[in-house]
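Handoff note, outgoing to incoming analyst
You'll be picking up this chain. Sequence as last confirmed:
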Amino acid sequence: MSSSDFLSGAGVLIAAACACASILLPAGRVRSAAMLTALVLFPILILGDQWHNHQIVELRHHEAKAAVAVIVGVVLVVVLAWVFVRWPILMPLSIIGTLPFRIPLESGGESANLLVPLYVVIGAGVLAAIFLPPPAEKRRPRWVAKTLAIFVMVYALQALYSEDFSKGLQEVCFFLVPFTLAYILLRELPWDRRLLFWAFCLVVGEAVLFVLIGSVEYLSRSLFWNEAVIRSNEFHTYFRVNSMFWDPNIYGRYLALVLVVVTTALLWVKGRRNFWTLAGLILILWLGLAQTFSQSSFIALLAGLALLAALRWSWRWTLAVVLVGAVLGAVVVLFVGGKSLTSDRFNVDTSGRGHLISGGAELFSERPLWGYGSGSFQKAYENHLAKSKAPVTVSHTEPVTVGAEQGLIGLAAYVALIVVALWTMGAGLWARGPDRRVTIFDVARAAVLAAFVALLVHTMAYAGFFQDPITWVLLAVGASLAASDRRISASSVARVQSTPRSLRP
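Most recent structure output, in case you need it:
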C-alpha cells in the first residue's frame, strides 16, 4: 500500500467519524469542530482522488482560474452563513430547495451530476451553526441517529478493502458525509407550523415548475440533456421527459414523493377552497408523472398512497386491497401476451435488472459476510461474473447492492436503520383515536412516513437510497417531529397530573 492510499483511507475514516460524531454529540464546541472537520475533509479527499483527472489537471495548469473558483466558493458560503444567522428559517428551506438541482461535472473518468448547490448550502449551514444559539433543550441522540452513524462508519470501513476504493471514497465524500451534516442541521430544528407551511409551499412550487418544464419538453419532443434518453426516445413509441433532472426515473421519484405529500394534505384538509386547490395541484403533478413513463415511480406512489389509506381509514381494508391488487398484477404479468414467464423474459421486461439481481445474489454468495467492499458492485460484477459483458452493470436494487458490496454486516446495518426509522416515524400515528383532534404535526408526520415508504419502495427498483439527499431529509424531519410529539404528549400528561382531580376533563 502506497503512502497516498494510506492517507486516503485514513482520511475517509476520519471524515466519516467526524460526521458520525456530529449527530451523536450534543450541541457545543466539540460537535462544531467535528462538523467543520468533516466539511473540510470531504472536498480535500475528492480532490486528492481526482488529482489526475483532466479537469483537475486543467485547473492545476491555470492557477489563477482555480484561485478565483475557490475564492468565489468561500465568499458564497460565508455570505450564505451570514444570511442563515440573520434569518435562520432560510437554512432548512435552502436545503430543501436545492435538493433537486445537480450540475454535470466529470468525476472518475465519467460524467457525474453533482449536488453542488446543496453542498454550498450545507457548508453555509455548518458555518452558521457555530454562531446560532444552541437549542433550549439539548436533544440526546435517538436510535435513528445511532443506527445512521453505525451505517456510515461501517460503509467507510468497508471502503478500505473495496475492489473499487475510488468509488467507495466518492460515495462517502459525495453523499454520506455531507448528507450526515445536513441531517443534524435539520434534526435540531423545531419544525413549527410556519416552517412546515413554507417547506410545503416550496416543495410544491418547485414540483409544479418542473412539470411545466417537462411539459414543454413533451410538447416539443426535445430534451435539454442526457443523450442516452434522447437516443432511446427515438426508438420508442412513447416520449419520456426528464425536466431539470438527468434521469426520468429520478424525476418521477421526485414527483411521486411530492404527490404523496400533497395527497396527505388533501386527506386531512379543512375547507372546500383548500380541498379543490390541492386537488388541482395533484392533477398537475399526475400529468407530469405520466410524462416520465417511470414504472418504478408509479409503484412507489401507490405504496405511499396505500400507507396513507391505512393511516386515514383502516389498515385491514388497505392490506386486503393491496393483496388483491398484487395478485391481479401478477396474473396480468404472467398471462397477458401469451408468453410464459422465464428468466430471459423477466430480464428483458425489467431492462436488464433480472441479471443484475441474480448476479448480485451470486456475488453475495461468494462473500456473504463482508462482501466486495463499499462502491464495488460494478467492478466486482465485471471481474467475477461470466455475464460481465452485460450492457448494464450498475445495480438498481438497494438490498442487492448492499448485500454484494457489504455482505451480512452491511445488510444488518441497512435493515436496522430502516426498521428504526419506520418505528420512529410511525410511533403513535396508529393509535390516534377517532375523538383525538388531528393537528398539523400529525399530518406532517403522516406525510413524512408515507414519503419515506414510497422512497424505500422506489429504491427496490432504482437503488440510490443513501445517495438521494431526500432520504436524509425525511429521516431528519421525521425524527424531529417524532421527538416533538413525544415532548408534547409528556407535557400534556404532566399538566393533567398536576391539575386537581375535580378540575380534570
